[in-house]
Request: fold
Amino acid sequence: MHIMNIEEIQGILLRVPELIDRLDSHDPNFAVLVKDWLTEAEQVLISNRLAVAANVAVLRGILISAERGVLPEGIVLTGRKTARKIKDAVAADALQRASELISDAIRGDTTQIAEGEKLTRQLVALAEKKGILPDDLDAGGHSETLNAIWHTMSEDPDLGPATTHLAGLVGAYDALVLLDRMLPFLE
Reply:
């Protein structure tokens, strides 16, 4: 999976704290917001061809059932069982379970990207020390400069094996994305 896809999914996960804040503030729309979040997460997962979208859809279905008054197994409520209390409890449970499922689904890719970032930082530091990075980074277009740097690093006897490893780890496209991110002085 490409970095951009992983970051799109991580963006969905980064909205969970805001939803929990809504629960904490007793927002009457909490269950609706969670259902919307589940729907959006489902669509992002489908567009990235991750089968975990089915599990998220099931959790959304359980929340829909709770909106219709069905208390699912495993949900324990104290005090009076109001419709809102049931919906909020089921929504919180669905949110927690969905975020775990999604995190687990991308964990391997996220680890590979993190390893790729670390390797890219090392490559750029070594390339800079060896004087491989061009002094005039504005010559030509951004993509051309980035490809030229990658080509020079790939041809270097010391950096070549590591660039091959990086391309094998994250893919050629994402290797260039990581290189671009590690060269903040490129415009």
Summary: Residues 111-182 form one domain. Residues 83-130 form the longest helix (48 residues). The CA atoms of residues 105 and 114 lie 16 Å apart.
